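Input record (one chain):
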Amino acid sequence: MIRFFEPLWKSFYSASFYRSAAKGGIIRSLLFLLLVASICAAVSAVKLHMELIPSMREDLAYLIEQIPAMTIKEGRLSTVNASSKSVDDPVYVIRRKDGHVMAVIDETAETAPEDLGGARVYISQNEAVIAKSSFEKRVYSFSQIHEFSIDQLFLKKWAVRAYYCAGLAAFPFLFVGLTLYRLFQSLLVSLFTLIFYTIRKDRIVYAESFSLSVYALTPPVLVGTAVDLITGHGYIGFLLTLVFACGFIVFVALSSAKEEQ
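The corresponding structure, as predicted from the sequence alone:
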C-alpha cells in the first residue's frame, strides 16, 4: 500500500523512479491520477467551503428572516408572522444582493399564477410550484399532507447543516472535473514525451509515455494546488503545469542517457 503512495514524493526528485514507473502499466498510472485528482479535489473543496460560509450565512439568514411560519393541515396552507398573526398579504422573499424576488408565499391564492409572480418558487394555499427553468415548472400538491409545520427555527437548523455540507457536496463534482482536467493534461504531455523521445531516437511505447506524463505532472500539480490554496491565484495552473511536467520528462531522459554512458 505504501508503495502506491511513493510517487507523491519520489516524483519530485528520483529519475530512477520515473524509469521504473513508466513500465508499471497504464492502469496503475490511471489509478495514481485518480489519487492526485482526489487530493486536489479535497483541497479545493475545503477552500470553497471556507470561501462560501461567510456569504452563505449572511444570505441564508436574510432569506430566513423573511419567511413566516407555515403549517399545512389537511392539504391547505396557513401562515403566521413573527407576532403570531395570520398573514393576509403575499410574502415576497427577496435576495439580499440584488433585491430579486426568490419566492412568493401566498395563502390567499388557491393556485400559483402562470408567471409565478416573477419568482422561482410560488407557494399557494394548495400547492408549491418551482421553476426549474424558463420552460419547465414542477408542481407539488399539498393534498396528501395531513399535517406539517415549518418555522424559522427549523429553517435555521437546516441552514447550519448546509454551511457544513457545502464543501462536502461540491467534492464529487470537483473530483470528476479535476480528473478529466488532469487526464487532458496527461494526454498533452504524453504527446510531448513521444515527440521528444523520437527526436532523441529512443524507443518508447505510448503506454510508457502516458505513465511518464502522469507522474511528471504530479509535482507541478501538487505545488500549484498548494499555491492556489495559499494565494488564490488559480491562473498559475494550466500552462505552468505543462511546462514543468515537460521539464521533468527532459530531466528523466537526460538522466537515463547519462547513466547508460
